[in-house]
Amino acid sequence: QLRWQRYAPEYAWDTLATHEWVKHGTCSPFHNDAGSYFAEAEAALEHATAGSTVSSAHILAADVGSHAEFG
After folding, report:
1. Which member of 2, 36, 55, 70 lies 3.0 to 4.6 Å from 30 by CB, making a disulfide possible if both were Cys?
2. Distances from the Cα of 56 to the Cαs of 20, 26, 28, 32, 71, in angstroms?
3. What pLDDT score does 43 carry?
4. DSSP calls for 11-68
5. Cβ-contact 21, 34 below 8 angstroms
6. CB 36 within 8 A of CB 30
7. What count of Cα atoms within 13 Å lies in the side-chain half-sphere of residue 56?
């Protein structure tokens, strides 16, 4: 089980991961490799929440609909 599956069981046991891959991953720079796409998404979440005392869920919820730039 991958680390992101521990935090989001709906990814592991339902169709959410498939939806995310089809909707977002296939048009990403990682369009040939779902594993790399999800690993990069996890790394981006870790980067965005590094040093924060607020949970990643709250940070993400506060930014729904906004645009993120990653260097």
Report:
1. 36
2. 18, 24, 22, 27, 20
3. 84
4. HHHSSHHHHHHHHTGGGSTTTT-HHHHHHHHHHHHHHHHTT-SS-HHHHHHHTTT---
5. yes
6. yes
7. 13
Q: Is 70 helix (H, G, I), strand (E, B) or coil?
A: coil
> For residue 1, what is the DSSP state?
-
pLDDT tens track for 15-62: 777 888 888 889 988 889 888 888 888 888 778 777 777 666 676 667
Give this prediction's pTM: 0.58
Q: Which residues of 14-52 are buried (b: 16+ CB within 10 A; e: fewer)?
A: eeebeebbeeebeeeebeeebeebbebbeeeeeeebeee
For residue 37, what are its two tokens? 């796409």
Measured in whole angstroms, the distance separating CA 28 from the mean position of its chain's CA atoms is 12
